[in-house]
Amino acid sequence: MLATFMYGPGDVRVEETETPTILTPTDAIVRITLSCVCGSDLHAFHGGGIRSGIARMGHEFLGIVEDTGADVSTVKQGDLVLAPFVWADNTCDFCREGLHTACRHGGTWGSTDAAGIVGGGQAEAVRIPLADGTLVKLPVPEDSELLPDLLTLSDVMCTGYHAAVKGRVNEHTTVTVIGDGAVGLSAVLSARLLGAPRIILMGRHTARTDLGVEFGATDVVPERGEEGIAKVKDLTNGDGTHVVIEAVGFPQAFDQAFGVVRKGGTVSRVGVPQYTEANVGMQAMFFPNITLTGGVAPARAYIETLLPKVLDGSIHPGRVFDRAVALPDIATAYQAMDDREALKVLVRP
Amino acid sequence: MLATFMYGPGDVRVEETETPTILTPTDAIVRITLSCVCGSDLHAFHGGGIRSGIARMGHEFLGIVEDTGADVSTVKQGDLVLAPFVWADNTCDFCREGLHTACRHGGTWGSTDAAGIVGGGQAEAVRIPLADGTLVKLPVPEDSELLPDLLTLSDVMCTGYHAAVKGRVNEHTTVTVIGDGAVGLSAVLSARLLGAPRIILMGRHTARTDLGVEFGATDVVPERGEEGIAKVKDLTNGDGTHVVIEAVGFPQAFDQAFGVVRKGGTVSRVGVPQYTEANVGMQAMFFPNITLTGGVAPARAYIETLLPKVLDGSIHPGRVFDRAVALPDIATAYQAMDDREALKVLVRP
Question: Which residue in A has a C-alpha nearest to residue B283's C-alpha?
């Protein structure tokens, strides 16, 4: 079968590799019918991030169950299923607390488990460890128009929602979202879902911020850095907003977040930090009582909440996809996203 | 009158200075009958912290109202009153949200307001701006045995409580407290008040950790650094605790906190950070979904909750005081605390 590998910065290849098979009784094999490229894949594409060596790429996908191990009971051959960003047992104490990214038996796509290779989702098929805990059966036909919306629940929409939940967004909190990428726009949609009365989107790509406004942004600030901070302060009586969602990951965005957060407020990060050290000192954080939160989203924890909203059409998070490519052409999707010509790209087999 | 000034690192002097008088109609003058030295004063004593020039010291005090401005209505001459760590109007939006440290009209002791000098609390008297918002009348006699307990509500006990509240300590959260100083011990007492079933105190001064056990610590870990982290992990099934209260302020304590916090957990800082940059990167914070919170405590916000518990004897936070000096001898109190011969020192006129 075909799968996507990153050999190094800028070097994405689709190659023939071994078709996965059931290795343990809790496995399933899923034939992938829709996947996509993540903003976090681009960090690796830049040579940043945490990957080293040749990496199996992709962690957002849905598809059809082709085979199941003897112990799998919640999905069966022919089911249309969604896989969240990590595989997990969905039963351990961390999973029960909604932190599937810390599952005691889970792991990430494109890695290994005790039985062998666990492939990535930018491929024709993948072996799913702990299939009962990991997979979510989708109650729609294989050719549903909702598939792009549903695919966002594997990561990007849940990541935006995680940012808003960790930031404790509610009907009393004003919100700034830094970044008009797919995660930032998903965060806008999530902040609206949670009732935020004011949502300031900081971004300067008009096509994206226009979608942000449709998703619920009440204000758009295209300026960055000190100029952008001043603009948000102007919009908020000099105070900044109660919650700031940082959906970029670069140090400049971290500093910008602390520049626009209201005293006593929260900076919630979902942009994968491309830095280690940052200013969390007396003036930036301690005296004004700022909270810093966020992290890798346990997408599985939010699917029960968000899936019904997709099914009933009250949200359309799949609007972040503005292009589609065939799997063999996936390198062009990476390049288009890296060049900011595409917001987020669907990948079909 | 006499007041305490810090001329520079290690150079604390008690000198004659002008006796304060009412400058604006919202002022009161308080004759101080009891104050103390704070761990944060020691940072200045070391030459660290944020002070420069000659500083008026002291921000924890209680005393008798000597005079009030025409607009003051909640306290009158002769009242025994407590002053929280900052002065504040107690009516602005920040104060109503419980963040008096961000009061739109407030400030810190040992500074100035629009009318002139606002003295420090290690003195014979002080002018109180916004007296109605700032002062809390104490319903006990001037010679009550509870005065040391009540004095802790000006800062240290409320700071420990703030750490626990910001960390969202409850009956389901395990807690580690780093630091056996007066704030750390107050945090132990606060975590117990909030129902934490397990409270691990990291400290190695036996007299202090013994008091910590009386305050509610279930375990004491004297080891520091990697050894201390391993010990806490051993005590918690390898996981660490849901909440870690960092009551020291040095970078080593920050790293130790991240070493013992459970995935998905919270590090709540109340030790004044003696650093600016710290590791908040992918591995330390983002992937495990750690929250970093805390800050300067809005003591005023917690007095309604804690004062009744002191009055009914259910808590005795004043046990952190293990020495008393007369104001003219206050330099010996700084030195004794700096040498760790004294935990926290009362100062009497």
Answer: A276
User: Alpha helices, DSSP H only, in A156-221?
Assistant: 156-166, 182-193, 206-215
Q: Closest chain B residue to A167 measured between Cα atoms?
A: B291
Q: Beta strand pairing status for A28-36 and A61-68? A: antiparallel
Q: Per-residue pLDDT tens, chain A, 349 aa: give them.
A: 999 999 988 999 999 999 999 999 999 999 999 999 998 888 878 776 545 678 999 999 999 999 999 999 999 999 999 999 999 999 999 999 999 999 999 999 999 999 999 999 999 999 999 999 999 999 999 999 999 999 999 999 999 999 999 999 999 999 999 999 999 999 999 999 999 999 999 999 999 999 999 999 999 999 999 999 999 999 999 999 999 999 999 999 999 999 999 999 999 999 999 999 999 999 999 999 999 999 999 999 999 999 999 999 999 999 999 999 999 999 999 999 999 999 999 999 8
Identity of the residue in B286, B288, B294 whose CB atom sits nearest the CB atom of A273 = B286
DSSP-assigned beta bridge partners for residue B347: B35, B325
By Cβ distance, the residue of A264, A273, A284 closest to B281 is: A273
CATH class of A160-294: alpha beta
B5-19, B40-54, B202-216: which has the minimum mean pLDDT? B40-54
B156-166 helix and B299-311 helix, angle to the nearest 10 degrees: 110
Interface residues from chain A to B (CB-CB < 8 Å): 50, 94, 97, 99, 101-102, 166, 263-264, 269, 272-273, 275-282, 284-296, 298
Residues of A in contact with B285 (CB under 8 A): 273, 292, 295
Topology (CATH) of A2-155+298-348? Quinone Oxidoreductase; Chain A, domain 1 (3.90.180)
Taking Cα atoms as reference points, which of B295, B108, B277, B99 lies closest to residue A290?
B295
**Using an 8 Å Cβ cutoff, are A66 and A87 in contact?**
no
Domain assignments of chain B as residue spans, ordered by start: 2-155+298-348, 160-294
Partner-chain contact B289 A282, CB within 8 Å: no
pLDDT tens digits for range B220-251: 999 999 999 999 999 999 999 999 999 999 99
User: Does the beta-carbon distance from A281 to B273 stay under 8 Å?
Assistant: yes
- Residue A248: both structure tokens together: 């970029």
Q: b/e string for A43-73 if b means 16 or more Cβ within 10 A? A: bbbeeebebeeebbbbbbbbbbbbbbbeebe
Contact B265, B248 (CB under 8 A): no
pTM: 0.96
Alpha helix ranges (H) inside chain B: 39-45, 93-96, 131-134, 147-151, 156-166, 182-193, 206-215, 225-235, 251-260, 299-311, 330-338
Residue listed under structure tokens 């681009």: A42
* A278, β-bridge pairs: B278
| A116-118 and A125-128 strand pairing | unpaired
Cβ contact (<8 Å) for A263 and B294? Answer: no
Distance from CA of A273 to the nearest CA of B (A): 6
Kindly state the helix (H) or strand (E) to which residue B198 belongs, with its residue range: strand B198-202
| Residues A289, B181: Cα–Cα separation, whole Å | 21
Complex ipTM more than 0.85, yes or no: yes
For residues B315 and B188, give the distance between their C-alpha atoms in angstroms, rounded to a whole number: 12
Q: Minimal Cα–Cα distance from A236 to chain B, Å? A: 14
Which helix (H) or strand (E) segment is A43 a member of? helix A39-45
